[in-house]
Structure formats: C-alpha cells, structure tokens
Design brief:
- This protein is α+β, with helices and mostly antiparallel strands.
- Strands 3-4-5 form a 3-stranded antiparallel sheet, with no helix packed on it. A two-stranded antiparallel sheet has the order 1-2.
- Helices cover 34% and strands 24% of the residues.
- The longest helix has 17 residues.
Length: 88
C-alpha cells in the first residue's frame, strides 16, 4: 500500500475485514458515547451567507450552490423549517 491509494486486493481485504467486524457487532452504542457525539453535533455552528436584492419591490435571496439552504425569492428552507421574509 502506498500513499492514499489501495490496491484492489488491499481494498477487498479492508472491505472484508469491515464486513466481518459488522457481522459480530450487535449495534449497541454506550450512552456516554452517543450523547457525547450528539452534544458535539448540536454545538457545531455554521454560518450561511445569503445575497439579497430587491427586484421591483420584491426581496430576492440567493444561497451559494454548496449551501444546504434551499432559497427561493423570499423563502428559506432548511431541515424541515421554512422562513419567509417580507419587506414593508
């Protein structure tokens, strides 16, 4: 094995090892491990930048292509939530 690449044989061996390990795992995860990981996920903060313009009196928002936000005109959707921004 050299660098970041595996030979097809090494790759197959790695997959077989993982499958053998998964067969014997009953799926239990210690509570402290689960809740520790969950706390890390909840504390992870991300910043999303939107670009806003006003076109003929209407707000138009645009998210970068790599953003997990779904943006359409004045609506932002993320993770089952929808935020609507109206101009006055």
């Amino acid at each position: 094995m050299s660098g970041e690449y595996l030979s097809p044989q090494d790759f197959e061996a790695a997959i077989d090892t993982h499958i053998d390990w998964a067969k014997s795992w009953e799926g239990a995860l210690p509570a402290d491990t689960f809740f520790g990981l969950w706390a890390e996920i909840l504390h992870e903060k991300q910043t999303f930048t939107l670009t806003a313009t006003v076109v003929e009196g209407q707000l138009r928002l645009v998210a970068p292509p790599e953003s997990p936000l779904v943006v359409m005109d004045n609506r932002i959707r993320f993770n089952g939530l929808e935020l609507i921004i109206n101009l006055q």
